[in-house]
Amino acid sequence: MGNLKLALIIKNPRDDVTFLLEKQKQPAKFGDEHYDSFVDSDLWDLPSTDLLVLEDGVRSGFTISVLESCLEEVDLMNFDFESTLILLLANLGIDFSDVGEWRFVRSVEEPEFGPDSCVRTCFIAGKLLNTDQSLQDNCKWMSMEACFASLIDVKPGSDRVGPLVLLGFGDDSRQSLKHKLSSSLSIQEYPPGVMLVPMRSRTLKPFKTTNLVVFSPENGSGDHQGTDFVAHGDALIVDPGCLFKLHVELKKIVDALPRKLIVFVTHHHRDHIGGLSAIQESNPDVILVAHVKTRHRIDGWSGNYTPVSGGENIYVNGQKLTVIFAAGHTDGHMALLHISTQSLIVGDHCVGQGSTFLDIRGGGNMTEYFQSTYKFLELSPNVVIPMHGRVNLWPKHMLCGYLKNRRSREESILKATEDGAHTLYDIVANVYSSVDRRFWWAAASNVRLHIDKLAVENKIPEGFSIQKFKASCGLRFAIRWTVGYIRSKIPFKINKPGFIMSVIAAGAGYFLLYTSKKKNQIKS
Predict the structure, then answer these.
(1) What is the pLDDT of residue 177?
(2) Where are the domains of the chain?
(3) What does the alpha-carbon distance between residue 388 and residue 147 come to, in Å, rounded to a whole number?
(4) Contact 424, 469 (CB under 8 A)
């Protein structure tokens, strides 16, 4: 079991329709006006916090009755339920004695987004007993109807509603749709109509899954509403990149969707296109939508194809999505903005945790990456949906964090070159010394692109040779990284230089033997 959270549904004593929402705390500021000037609008959600671990083992009768009522779904006996509840109420300015009629509602475990453990949230409901209770500024009453309306028709700069409202109250009709799509895969729906299915893929660590995004509006007009579109259908899938062993599950999802299906691909990496063959087998009439540079790198697709370059509209059962050109991660990288919910699907431009790498072999470009990030900020999305990790509820803060991190790395790279680091390995070892060596390969791609950007901007220090730097990439970097990685893993007592040379010699011998056999096979 992963992390456990407690969420409260506190009903209004004056009616049975409205419930209490708490204003969520904004992320910490960066301390830099350039980034702090980008502020996300207020986010309101059910009061929630991590469940405290029980220390003394003493429980009240109230606690025991609530915990026993939820035993079939989740065991909370090792958690301090009452102290957590009191803490939550105190943050709202409400005394424990002012709320009654407590009952367990449900527990919901999120899908496997990674890289950390899944979060399970336990929802309990109670009713405020004091009809004269005044609310603090961080609280307000809201109905489910009003919450849903604000989620499906987002106004720029308006207050936002978080995902716990949808999870806590649930929707039986939507649950049946999820079950229809897949009975074995966990699905998260947020915002309404935007379903995420994390599926195992051949992605880079620390992630293990790629988010399959599914749009299947049930109450749309079914009309593309005008002529400003490049594709229209009744359902849309984004980035089917699952493992081959999950193709059966992917086909079940496709079979459950309307036949007039669009598949949008953000870029060509294997963990984003690995399921295309399964989709084509299940629905030969599906339309592939991608940048032409992405299409040229996709093998095996023989079906319908519509090229996009940014600015085009796609209609899915009457709902509008706009294609955004977002080069940087690759030269054909695209994003997709769902207009009504202002949900921005960013592909691999951002990830749910940590930073992303730019693929130099796939046309990655650091200057374009910065430009695309600012483009996203100007869009002012409601949420950011990465293809790896959780939905981000603070999109402007996240995007500014990426800008700040990239600028910080660039400054460190520039300083390393000024201090005499002239090879790719030396710069990576200097700038990423505190990072696990396993991630230096991805870091090396980013460093090369930062050097390219600095060279174009004429910021490279005198004496730094771009020609020598490029010569240090590729095989030379691979050899030095291999030696360094092996050395870091060998126990201290072993004669490291001799052992490493033996390993390298053995590897070289195996490689020569392998190539010799291949030549003999060809000759024969």
Answers:
(1) 65
(2) 3-142, 171-406, 419-483, 490-524
(3) 27
(4) yes
List Cβ neighbours of 434 (8 Å cut-off, separation of 6 or more): none
Q: What are phi and psi of 502, to 5 degrees?
A: -65, -45
Q: Which string of DSSP letters, residue by residue, matches 90-149? A: HHTT--GGGEEEEEEEEEEEPP---SS--EEEEEEEEEE--TTPPPPTTEEEEEHHHHHH
Half-sphere exposure of 153 (CA within 13 A, CB side): 4
Residue pLDDT, tens place only, 118-142: 999 999 999 999 878 888 999 999 9
Identify the DSSP state of 366. Answer: H
Tokens 């699907």 map to which residue? 345
> Cα separation of 69 and 71, whole Å?
6
Give the number of C-alpha atoms closer than 13 A to the C-alpha of residue 345, restricted to the C-beta side: 31
**Helix (H) or strand (E) run with residue 207 in it:** none
Residue 301 to residues 162, 288, 463: CA-CA distances in angstroms? Answer: 38, 9, 48
**Dist. CA 353–CA 246, nearest whole Å:** 24
Tokens 């390298």: give the residue: 504
Both tokens of 475, joined, read 């095989």
Q: To the nearest 10°, the Cα dihedral for 162, 163, 165, 167?
A: -170
Per the listing, tokens 């062993």 go with: 245
* Residue-wise pLDDT tens digits, 370-393: 999 999 999 999 999 999 999 999
Q: What's the CA gap between 359 and 442, in Å, rounded?
A: 8
Q: At 158, give phi and psi (nearest 5°).
A: -80, 165
Q: Which stretch of DSSP H or E encloses residue 469?
A: helix 466-471
Regarding the domain delimited by 171-406, which CATH topology (the fold level of the hierarchy) does it fall under? Metallo-beta-lactamase; Chain A (3.60.15)
Crossing angle of the two packed helices 440-456 and 424-431, in degrees rounded to 10? 110
Q: Answer whether 392's CB lies under 8 Å from 398's CB.
A: yes
Helix H or strand E segment including 215: strand 209-215
Confidence of residue 518 (pLDDT cuts 50, 70, 90): very low
Fold of the domain spanning 3-142? Nucleoside Triphosphate Pyrophosphohydrolase (3.90.79)
122 touches 51 (CB < 8 A): yes
How much is the average pLDDT of 434-459?
94
Contact 252, 242 (CB under 8 A): no
Instruction: Say which amino acid occupies 211.
Output: N
State residue 507's pLDDT score. Answer: 56
The Cα–Cα gap between 297 and 117 comes to 34
β pairing state of 261-264 and 235-238: parallel
Please report where in the chains the tokens 């299947």 appear, as a residue: 216
Choose among 154, 149, 123, 145: nearest CA to 46.
123
- Token digits for 260? 């007039």
What is the model's pTM?
0.89
Query: How far, in Å, CA of 459 to CA of 464, rounded?
Result: 11
**Residue 401 contacts by C-beta under 8 Å, 6 or more apart in sequence?**
30, 35
Query: Is 415 strand, coil or helix?
Result: helix
Measure the CA dihedral 347/348/350/356, to 10°.
180
